[in-house]
């Protein structure tokens, strides 16, 4: 199904949309590597979010701009699950991980369900994805399921103000700063 969606986007959309699509696909990693990625990762340090040995889910990983740095921090005792709904993003993430010699990144193709056990993840990282989610509540329920009771869901987005409207009974706010909100799962 996902491949069919990609083919549709590539083959049928008008040239303007195609240019916009190409801009995001090809320039986004450049923008992330050159500037915004390191700025956003300062929040990892500020909140002590990523640590060696963790199970880290990068939900909506895109081309892996956060999956790769996370994999370096969690080291081989930990695992980064890089999940996205577009196969092309995952292919790029895989290639980048291979090139960087990182063997602790597992890619996952999905637009909602996470193929991981209940209570198995330390951190869910969702950067610039929340506003794109069609099924926000369903995705949050799934993230609640896979997080350990001591785990953290970190959402970086322009829409963090809208997050609490979808988290009732699932998460409580732990901390917040500008565009990032950290949430703890409710047991
Ligand atoms: C703006 S990009 C952000 C990528 C990456 N997190 C970053 O900050 O560089 C949003 C990503 O979320 C993915 N995405 C959107 N909706 C999704 C869903 N329901 N499930 C999984 N991934 C999704 C898109 O395919 C895209 O790769």
Keywords:
globular, 7 strands, alpha/beta, 6 helices, binds S-adenosylmethionine, Rossmann fold, 43% helix, 187 residues
Structure, explained:
- This protein has one domain (38-185): Rossmann fold, CATH 3.40.50.
- Helix 3 links the parallel strand 1 and strand 2 (79-84).
- The chain is α/β, with parallel strands linked by helices and 187 residues long.
- The chain has 6 helices and 7 strands, in the order ααβαβαββαβαββ.
- The radius of gyration is 16 Å and the shape is globular.
- The structure holds S-adenosylmethionine.
- Residues 32, 60-62, 65, 83-86, 89, 111-112, 127-129, 132-133 line the site of S-adenosylmethionine.
CATH topology grouping: Rossmann fold
Q: SSE order in H/E notation?
A: HHEHEHEEHEHEE
Summed over residues and divided by their number, the pLDDT gives a mean of 93
Structural category is alpha/beta
Helix count equals 6
Any guess at the CATH architecture?
A: 3-Layer(aba) Sandwich
What coarse outline follows from CA principal-axis ratios? Answer: globular
Strand order of the largest sheet: 3-2-1-4-5-7-6
Give me the count of strands.
7
List the uncertain runs: none
Q: Describe the sheet with the most strands.
A: 7 strands, mixed
Percentage of β-strand residues: 15-25%
How far apart are the first and last residues' alpha carbons, in Å?
Answer: 35 Å
State the helical fraction.
40-55%
Count of domain modules? 1
CATH H-level superfamily title: Vaccinia Virus protein VP39
Cα gyration radius (Å): 16 Å
